[in-house]
Amino acid sequence: MMNKSQVILFLIILLFFTACEEQIFPLDDGSPPLLVVEGVIEGGEMPTPPVVLLTRSLRFTSDGRQQSLDDLFVHDALVTVSDGSQVVTLEEICWDDLSEDQQKLVSENFGSRYDSIGVNLCVYADVNQEMLGEIGKTYTLNIQADDQELSAETTIPPHVPIDSVYYQNRSGDNSPEYFDLIAKISDVENRPDFYRYFTSTNGDFFDAPLASVGDDLLFDGQEFEFPLTEGETWTDPPADPQDYGFFYVGDSITLKWCNLDETHFNFWSTLEFNFFNQGPFGSYTRIDSNIEGGLGVWGGYSVSYYTGVVE
């Protein structure tokens, strides 16, 4: 039975992984499954402890129907995170560990996305929150599972906050209920900065848009103004493509604005490029990974939040 603080942490964990769908990486026939990591730690306005999702890869040619999704989760792994002066061991937490009342609490707060899919989601987390992310620190992840050993490093970079945000009526038509979100930042000169963002509408999950990352290559050291689209899940696009990315009058929007280091950025950049480069004439793009001995990403974010009502 999980205590109240662990249930709250599980709610945070759900926020981490709703916007991040695992992708299938092509493997040669006969290759054994590899371990796939999706791990995160955040510093900044609301620092969070390390959380790691650990699964097994599928062959590119495999039939997913032959294997239960529950079987992809790796159990009983030894997962540790070090910040150079402290080491914490992450504890495995699964959806089925929650009582019926606790599962109901999660569903009421975050909708039915998890209580309806029939998968026993399992993650490794610092349930006692002994280590919270700090800007400027480097975090080393080590994993021992399935007779394999994995490692990775990530640094939570300095944060470049947003100077201002405002909503602008959708241009080019007569739809007064549709708005763009416009943000302005002052980029730091002579320093590579990498950005990612998520949005939450009316208190729902934070989702990243299909193109969520960018760098300052073209505006280093400048004040820069740009539109941000509404976050969408990979598998649940809007019913009308013309509605993609816009916000609606009366909605309460929270913007989660993040800086990430270069290797973390490269993972999401190549993943998103590969997503858009599909179809009969598309070519496969190898997804960059910072995981030694496996696939996926271990990444830190420096984060700030901005909330407003579309009007």
Give short descriptive properties of this protein.
single chain; 311 residues; mainly beta; eight-stranded mixed sheet; 16 strands; 36% strand; globular
The average pLDDT is: 82
Report the major sheet.
8 strands, mixed
**Number of E strands:** 16
Number of helices: 3
Subunit arrangement of the protein: single chain
> What low-confidence regions span 5 or more consecutive residues with pLDDT below 50?
18-25
Task: Describe the protein in words.
This protein is mostly beta strands and 311 residues long. The chain has a domain at 4-156. 13% of the residues lie in helices and 36% in strands. The protein contains three helices and 16 strands. It has helices spanning 4-17, 100-110, 262-276, and strands at 35-44, 48-56, 78-82, 87-89, 91-94, 122-125, 138-145, 148-155, 162-169, 178-186, 194-201, 213-215, 223-228, 247-248, 252-260, 295-309. The strands form three sheets. An eight-stranded mixed beta sheet has the order 5-6-2-1-16-15-11-12, covered by helices on one side. The longest helix is centred in the last third of the chain and has 15 residues, at 262-276. The chain is globular and about 55 Å long. The model is unreliable at 18-25 (pLDDT under 50).
